[in-house]
Every structure is written in structure tokens, then in C-alpha cells.
Design a protein that fits this description.
It is built from 20 helices and 22 strands. Strand 5 and strand 6 form a beta hairpin. The radius of gyration is 25 Å and the shape is globular. Helices cover about 40% and strands about 20% of the residues. The chain is an alpha+beta fold. Strands 13, 14, 15, 16, 17, 18, 19 and 22 form an 8-stranded mixed sheet that branches. Strands 3, 4, 5, 6, 7, 8 and 9 form a 7-stranded mixed sheet that branches.
Length: about 600
């Protein structure tokens, strides 16, 4: 298929705000795409050329893109930079300059999806001497044959910022709509509620496959190639990460026991949540975002060779540990281990321990449907003794006072708290259910837990902060159902001068002239930014607010009162942010606990 067709769809999507219209247009595009090209478009929509766990990056710097535009259009680099300073988007710069191209080309060809993808893939592989010139040549080749609309997205894709506000949920919804239309000839005549039920049912089937095989490109290829039957070919496989399960919140030990009854209670470690996949000598470690981080943790790899069976997928928390004092290091120390360089040096300085808490696959057998208590027993059976990998601390109880005592003990040891688990629950990949419940701190009618928020914009500094160019952040939480970010707070405290400088440096590179498509707010910051950076935020409480969009109904939403930044969470992405549903539940817990205190 011609890339122009795709670019035209992208252009339409960029200029509408209705999520329903966006998914309908996406569905229409996916219907027209051949199976093999569908996979490529899904990756490009995700800002990639391959699934995350393969680690193939297409991200190039703005300098390279600017030089590619200049090389293809005949404008000078200074002219490109001047227009970029004005527009703040190299995609729009490419669009304008290709439309006004000064230097014609004797030979141009219509661009295909295959050609665009092949050039981007080749650029990502090109390294060493002369690589920059070859990348510029490959990029200029695309710009030279591009229409203005094509040029806009060819410039944006390598920057990892396509600016359409489309996440994985929207892609899965679009496929569900596509199959809904195919299976129901009277789709257009159906009532909206009927369409919604069919869409939800189909979306759940697609998401179930994605939860155990984190490659949406491959899943959509199967769907296009073999229809819904293609999902039956998706199985859990070592080397391909599953999407991790997540925990709900309750405010105290009493409510946890009331909810779960007799349950497992594990220590909650403040480190890297990792998934370790082993098949023979092929061992891979994945982050909670399914990024492969194997090379960062050599001591865990060595231990896995000796302590784990030939084929397995296990989950745990890795954190830095001081053997001399028998104490856990804080997260700020552990995060230093996430690096590409000086790995061995940091491994000696801050060695890690891996505390395993679950197993989902052993020697060809999928254990996800087994109850937790059986999985834990299996985990204990397969783990050989060693210094690096061990089991998480755990008790089984149905007594609130025992749970509370275990919780206080873990807090005293410098850990985050506890996770209570339903003994009979299967492993629920990619979902947040009450099978796991976390208790991090004692709730006292205030918001003592932190909220992971996404930066959607920022305000210029005033007074002393003028020199930093940044004074406050506009942040949001993630509405999973609508695949949008809803504003919840303006943060102006908790930021040191070093953090202000770092944030301004990061955010100024992602400035957008208009509000991103996937952002919902009535506030207007001085600068909109591409939503990609997550900050951990603490506040006094959650309050009702007419200003913020989080959970907004009848003109009233939810907001954080007196929010302050704790730290930048470089280990988390947009989809890992606290959800709107979680904020609603936290608000309900806060009201409940506050009421109890006054009774």
C-alpha cells in the first residue's frame, strides 16, 4: 500500500478530538491494510520498528532529522532551524518545506509502507564510521519522494513522537470495531449500546492474547491473516514477556482480610519489578514495560543459570542490598543500576538481590491458571539455594492483627509495605484486580500513598525560578477506558534547582504548539509537552475540583491538594501511571477512613 494513504488517515486523525471518530478512522485504515503491512503500521504507531522487548530503537535526534529535511528540500540548515523554532514541530517543518521544495528531483517514486519501514529499519541498524551520513541519505531519500503529509509523519516517527495520541487501547478498540463490522452486516443500523457490547467482547479477546504475548504487531498480523482464529495461535513463550498483573489498594489490614479471607501476605520491595525468562542458556530479563534489561544485571543472570530450571518464566523484585549492614538501599540507589555503561562497576558498588514472588511457566507448562498457592509451592520447589535469588518474605493468615504486625515489621526494615494475595486466584496478566491488594502506609484520612502522574505541560518560572525556565508542572493520570490523560494537579513544590534544570532540559525537547490529542483538561499551561515523563507525586489529600478533568462528572472532577513532586520515575511510562479508576478508589478510601476517625 502507498504510504500516502496511511499519512492521509494520520492527518485526519490529528485534526479531530473525538475518541470515537479516531477509533473509527483507525478501524477503516486497518480494514484496508494487508496483513504484513498492518504489523509495520502498528509498530510505527507505537513509535517503534519492532516490539519493545526486541530493543530495536528508531529514535534519532532532532539534528539528524533537520539535516535530512535540508538535504532533501534545498533549504539551508539555518532556515530549517528558524522554522522549527517558530513551529516547535519538525513534522510541520518537513510538511511546509517539502510543499515549497526548491530543489526538484529528476526521479521520484511513490512511497510505499514497505519502503518507509525498510529505510527506518536500516537507519536504526546503521552504526560506526559514516553512519550519520548514511542515515541522512536514507532520510532525505524518503523526504525527496514524499508528499507534504507523508513528510510530516516521516519526520515525526524517528523522533518517537507521532503526535496522534493513539495508545494500545485505541488500536485494540479499532480492531474490535473492524471485526464487529465484519461479523454484523447491520452494524450501522445497530443501537450504540449493542455496538458497545460487541466491541467490548472482541476487545477482551484481543487484549487477552496481548497480555500473554507483548507484541501487538504480531497479534494484529495474526488477526488480519487468519481472523479471530489467529488468536488461538498466541501462547505463552519464554523470551516473549507477558504483561504483569497489578494490585488494588485498601486502607488497612481489617478490610484486606474482609475482602480476601485467609490470604498470603508478602513483603513489598521498593526496587525494579522484573520478569526473568529462561530457556536453556538463553536468559532474558524484562522490565515492567517489557523492555529487555538483561545486560544491566549480570549477577542475576549468573545466579539464574545455577538456581533456576532449564525453562521458566518467573517474576520478582530486584533491589540493591548492603550485605555489610544487612539493609536494603532506597530506590534512588537501586535506580542507578539501570544503565547501559559502567554496568560491572555499579554491580560491585550496589549488588542486587532478586526476591521472587511468582512463577507462570515451567518446563513447557503454563501455570497462569493455577491458583496462587500452587504457583508459590512450585516456585519454592524449582528455586535452588543461592545468595542472589531468593523467595519474597511471606506469611499466610486470616487475622488482621497478624497482617498488621507483618506490615509494621516490613516498614521497619525499610520496605514499602505489603502485598496481600488471594490464595486461589490465577495469574491475571495485564490487569489490576483484587486478587492482589497493596498496603503501603497507614491511612489517616489523608493521601499518604503516592500517585504516579504524567507531565502534560509546564509553566514558566517566576521570581527565582525565572532562570530555570520552569516553575510548575501540569500533570495528569491515565484513563485506561478512554485511552486519554486527565489533568489532576499543578505541581510547584518538591523540586530542587537541579531537578528544575533537568526537567526543563527534558521537557523543552518535547514542546507541542497545541494540546496533545490524548490530553483532557481545561487548563492552559505556558507549554504543552508530549506526555511521556512520569513523576511520583505526594499530596495531602484528594479533593473535588471544577478545574481538573480526572473523573469529571457534571462539571466536578478530582484533584490533588497541595501536591509535591517526590521524584522523576524514569522506570515508568505513560501506561504505568496511576489510573483514573485508582484515583476514584483512593478518594473513596480516604472518605471512608476519615469518616471512621470521626465516629
Amino acid at each position: 500500500m502507498k504510504f500516502k494513504t496511511v499519512a492521509d488517515y494520520f492527518d485526519k486523525i490529528e485534526n479531530i478530538s473525538s475518541r470515537l471518530e479516531i477509533t473509527d478512522l483507525l478501524s477503516e485504515l486497518f480494514e484496508r491494510l494487508p496483513a504484513g503491512e498492518t504489523k509495520k503500521i502498528i509498530y510505527l504507531l507505537q513509535g517503534k520498528i519492532a516490539p519493545t522487548f526486541e530493543g530495536k530503537e528508531i529514535g534519532f535526534g532532532e539534528k539528524l532529522i533537520a539535516e535530512g529535511i535540508a538535504k532533501a528540500t534545498g533549504f539551508t540548515r539555518r532556515e530549517v532551524d528558524t522554522l522549527f523554532a517558530k513551529k516547535g514541530d519538525l513534522g510541520e517543518v518537513a510538511e511546509d518545506m517539502v510543499a515549497k521544495k526548491q530543489q526538484g528531483s529528476l526521479f521520484t517514486n511513490d512511497l510505499t509502507i514497505e519502503k518507509v519501514f525498510a529505510n527506518l529499519e536500516k537507519m536504526s541498524r546503521t552504526q560506526g564510521s559514516g553512519s550519520q551520513e548514511l542515515k541522512k541519505k536514507l532520510l532525505a531519500e524518503l523526504f525527496n519522494s514524499a508528499t507534504p503529509a507523508e513528510a510530516k509523519f516521516i519526520a515525526r516517527i524517528p523522533l518517537g513522537n507521532i503526535r496522534l495520541g493513539i495508545g494500545d487501547p485505541s488500536i485494540m478498540d479499532a480492531f474490535a470495531i473492524m471485526f464487529g463490522k465484519q461479523q454484523n452486516k447491520d452494524w450501522k443500523e445497530m443501537k450504540e449500546e449493542e455496538q458497545r457490547k460487541i466491541k467490548i467482547s472482541l476487545r477482551e479477546r484481543i487484549e487477552a492474547a496481548y497480555n500473554i504475548h507483548s507484541d501487538l504487531g504480531e497479534i494484529t498480523f495474526k488477526l488480519k491473516d487468519k481472523g479471530l482464529a489467529g488468536l488461538d495461535e498466541i501462547t505463552i513463550t519464554p523470551g516473549t514477556p507477558i504483561r504483569p498483573t497489578a494490585a488494588e489498594r485498601l486502607p488497612n489490614a481489617k478490610e484486606i482480610i474482609e475482602k480476601l479471607g485467609k490470604c498470603a501476605v508478602e513483603a513489598k520491595y521498593d526496587g525494579f519489578r522484573v520478569q526473568l525468562s529462561k530457556k536453556g542458556n538463553d536468559i532474558k530479563i524484562f522490565s515492567r514495560q517489557n523492555e529487555e534489561i538483561t545486560k544491566m544485571f549480570p549477577e542475576i543472570i549468573d545466579a539464574a543459570k545455577k538456581q533456576l530450571p532449564k525453562e521458566c518464566i518467573v517474576e520478582g523484585e530486584a533491589l540493591a542490598y548492603n550485605d555489610d549492614t544487612q539493609e536494603f538501599y532506597p530506590f534512588q540507589i537501586t535506580i542507578q543500576r539501570k544503565r547501559k555503561y559502567d554496568v560491572e562497576k555499579k554491580a560491585k558498588e550496589y549488588p542486587l538481590k532478586l526476591f521472587l514472588f511468582d512463577v507462570v511457566f515451567v518446563d513447557g507448562k503454563n501455570l497462569m491458571k493455577e491458583p496462587f498457592i500452587k504457583r508459590r509451592k512450585k516456585l519454592k520447589e524449582i528455586l535452588k539455594k543461592g545468595e542472589i535469588i531468593t523467595l519474597s518474605d511471606m506469611i499466610i493468615t486470616d487475622k488482621p492483627e497478624e497482617l498488621e504486625k507483618f506490615f509494621e515489621e516490613k516498614i521497619g526494615n525499610g520496605l514499602e509495605g505489603i502485598i496481600a494475595k488471594d490464595l486461589n486466584a490465577p495469574y491475571i496478566a495485564g490487569a489490576r484486580k483484587f486478587a492482589w491488594i497493596k498496603l503501603k502506609r497507614s491511612y489517616k484520612g489523608t493521601l499518604d500513598d503516592t500517585v504516579d502522574t504524567v507531565i502534560i505541560g509546564y509553566y514558566k518560572g517566576k521570581g527565582k525560578r525565572t532562570q530555570f525556565g520552569l516553575g510548575a508542572l501540569l500533570v495528569a493520570v491515565y484513563n485506561q477506558e478512554k485511552d486519554v490523560l486527565e489533568s489532576i494537579a499543578k505541581i510547584g513544590t518538591g523540586m530542587t534547582e537541579d531537578i528544575l534544570t533537568e526537567l526543563e532540559s527534558l521537557l523543552s525537547k518535547t514542546i507541542s504548539k497545541k494540546k496533545p490529542n490524548n490530553v483532557v483538561t481545561e487548563l492552559e499551561p505556558d507549554f504543552w509537552v508530549t506526555p511521556k515523563y512520569v513523576v511520583e507525586t505526594l499530596a495531602d489529600e484528594i479533593t473535588k475540583s471544577p478545574l481538573h478533568a480526572c473523573a469529571k462528572k457534571e462539571g466536578i472532577g478530582l484533584a490533588l491538594r497541595f501536591p509535591r513532586m517526590i521524584k522523576l520515575r524514569s522506570d515508568k511510562k505513560l501506561v504505568d501511571a496511576t489510573t483514573t479508576k485508582e484515583v476514584i478508589k483512593m478518594f473513596e478510601i480516604q472518605k471512608r477512613v476519615s469518616l471512621d476517625m470521626h465516629n
